[in-house]
Each structure stands twice: as structure tokens, then as C-alpha cells.
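Repro:
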Amino acid sequence: MEPHLTGKQYDKIASWWHDYHKTSSYGVKPFEHALSFVSAKREERQTAPLALDVGCGSSDRFISILERSGFLLTGIDVSEKMIKLAKDNHPSHHFCMMILALGNQTTSMIIFMLGIAYFIFR
């Protein structure tokens, strides 16, 4: 499915997704575990650490964890409505609708979640 069509599909379920996942514990433990690896690095910094959330959706549970850990966040997603929910609920962070591309080709798949956490924050 083309990324813009994927975004339109997520637009249809954005409110449900947000309400269902904002209090969900799914993925929280591994996410917090990944953050524990960067805590020493964060203490060395003079400024707030930055995080990039690719495919952020409305992101409530993960953004809240990052906020408590002192991170500033940029979130990108293909769903306009997911981005609006994220902006409405976390106005101190930056969110934008974006389709990632490599060169002149749209990416077909981005693999991230916890494997990329260390790479982003180190």
C-alpha cells in the first residue's frame, strides 16, 4: 500500500487508536529498558536530549515516558489525524506528517522500535 493511502487508513481509526493505546502497557517495559541504556549518556549533557519517533501515531504512552525522562521529541507519521492528536496532547514537542524516502524512492518498510532506540539516543 502506498504510504499516503496507509495514512488515510490510519486517519479513519485515529481517535480509536489514541483512546485504546494511551493507557496501554504494550511495549512500555522494553521501551523503558532501552531508555535505561542511555541514562548515563543523558547525565553528561548540558541540554535536553532529543528523540525522533518515526511512525509516532498519537504516541501518548511513549511520549509521556520520554517527557518524564527529560527528552524533547520530534515525531513523524503518515497520518494527518494521528499527528493532530499528538500535537493536541503534547504541544511542547514537534510533530509533522511526513513520508520517508530514500533518494527518489519511498521506503517500503522501516524497522525500528527498540532496536533503533540506542542508535538515536547515543
